[in-house]
Amino acid sequence: MSIIGHLAVGLAAKPAAPKVQLYVLLLATLVLDFLFFAFALVGIEGMRTDIPWSHGLFMSVIWSAAAALVGARIYRSHRAGVVIGLVVFSHWALDFVSHPMGFGDPQPPDLPLFFHRSRKVGLGLYNSISVFQALAIETGMFVLGAAIYASYVVKKRKAERSQPA
Fold first, then answer.
1. Choosing a second label site near 41 at 20 to 30 A (CA), which of 16, 58, 150, 151?
2. Which residues of the chain have pLDDT under 50?
3. How far apart are CA 53 and CA 32, in angstroms?
4. 34: Cβ–Cβ under 8 A, 6 or more apart, which residues?
5. How far apart are CA 130 and CA 100, in angstroms?
6. How far is CA 101 from CA 47, 84, 95, 110, 132, in A?
């Protein structure tokens, strides 16, 4: 999944966490990629094949739980923490559906369940479709996420206007 599809989840999650700023939800969708680049930079992970610390299922659950705890603490809201944690985990869930990303050149699964040499998984949607089809799917996801967010903003503004001054 590219950045567009991940960001769609952050937009769609805003109504579930009104206290959380939109940019926090958008950044939460990309936490696993930020970790990947940081780990690759210091040599902990490889650029294509060895990603257990950022994108492994086990560590994705750990990062999501950590984000949930931090979010709950910052926002003093369990709900906000849960939403942030779920948004972080949504990255792995979307990658599970889309990875590996062969775009017509099938690749083996690349998302480890645990650490090095553990079983790798991925449904491989992007193995069987073209880049253009993937872009269409992700654009559709983004439009849907943006529509959910826009609907939330409209309802919120209407509610604010109907409040007595």
1. 58
2. none
3. 9
4. none
5. 13
6. 14, 26, 9, 9, 13
Question: Which stretches does DSSP call E strand in the chain?
Answer: 111-112, 120-121
Cα dihedral 111, 114, 116, 120 sign: negative
- The model's pTM: 0.92
* Tens digits of residue pLDDT in 34-63: 999 999 999 999 876 679 999 999 999 999
- In the numeric block, the tokens 């939460």 are attached to 28
The fraction of the chain above a pLDDT of 90, given in percent, is: 79
The amino acid occupying position 55 is: H
- What are the residues facing 120 on neighbouring strands? 112
What does the DSSP assignment read for 54-89?
A: HHSHHHHHHHHHHHHHHHHHHHT-HHHHHHHHHHHH
